[in-house]
Amino acid sequence: MPQLKLFDSSETLLADDERGRIAYTPHLVDAASAEAWFAELRSGVPWRTERRMMYDREVDVPRLMGHFRLDSAPALTPPSILDAAARVVSATAVPFNTVGLNLYRDGRDSVAPHHDHLNEIRKGFPIALVSLGATRRMVIRALSHPRSVIHVDLEPGSLLVMDYATQLHYTHGVPKTTEPVGERISLAFRVKPSAGEAFPSAV
After folding, report:
1. What is the mean pLDDT of the chain?
2. Between 31-44 and 79-92, two packed helices, what is the crossing angle to 10 degrees?
3. Domain coordinates of the chain in residue numbers?
4. Rg of the chain over all Cα atoms, to the nearest angstrom
5. Which of 2, 13, 146, 197 has the most CB atoms in a 10 Å sphere around its CB?
6. Is 12-49+61-190 in CATH node 2.40.400.10?
7. Beta partners for 69?
């Protein structure tokens, strides 16, 4: 099972026990790089809207979305995606091969508490989240006793790493806020089956 590589002394462990390891590094990249990546992705990603069933009716997903494979990156992949992927892979020693993007346009955009679908990611590998743009708060809740709640403000240029076990024992989400807040882009790096390969079964 892959082991997370330790970051520099700025890493903060938010959880590290039998339920999983969650680590936050506020300055994976410098402010200028984070700002440049945000500007390129905001204008260069083909953002899409989605609709999903919720409470017996179809509703708009409250954010815009994008996705890129990294193991067979198309020619039009924004350079900042590749730069960010290289930085995250170097920091974690994990061979991430996909990135999902979310664009939060204001405080009304959000993501409900959830955990990743384990049948869509490789067992044992972590998830890494890079944040750009405005700071937004993530809420991480344990599913069983002790029902701890972790609040972490995801700053621009920061990295949050949640290992595989956390997806069994925690949910994570970005709630709506009535506070004035600017746009935020998140990059969620995962290890998924290679293109054309069947997903492994969830265990």
Report:
1. 89
2. 130
3. 12-49+61-190
4. 16
5. 2
6. no
7. 98
- The answer to whether residue 22 scores a pLDDT higher than 70 is yes
What is the pTM for the complete model shown? Answer: 0.88
Mean pLDDT of 39-47: 96
* Spatial separation of the C-alpha atoms in residues 117 and 123, rounded to whole Å: 11
Tens digits of residue pLDDT in 125-167: 999 999 999 999 999 999 999 899 999 999 999 999 999 999 9
* Rounded alpha-carbon distances, angstroms, from residue 150 to 24, 65, 170, 171, 184: 12, 25, 10, 10, 20
Q: Which two tokens stand for residue 16?
A: 């590290």
Alpha carbon distance 13, 23 (integer Å): 4
- As a three-state string, the secondary structure of the chain is CCCCCCCCCCCEEEEEECCEEEEEECCCCCHHHHHHHHHHHHHHCCCECCEEEECCEEEECCCEEEEEECCCCCCCCCHHHHHHHHHHHHHHCCCCCEEEEEEECCCCCCEEEECCCHHHCCCCCCEEEEEEECCEEEEEEECCCCCCEEEEEECCCCEEEECCCHHHHEEEEECCCCCCCCCEEEEEEECCCCCCCCCCCCC
Which residue, among 89, 95, 141, 135, has the nearest Cα to 115 in the 3D structure? 141
Q: Looking at the predicted structure, is the pLDDT value of residue 46 above 80?
A: yes
Please name which of 83, 177, 188 lies closest in space to residue 137, comparing C-alpha atoms: 177
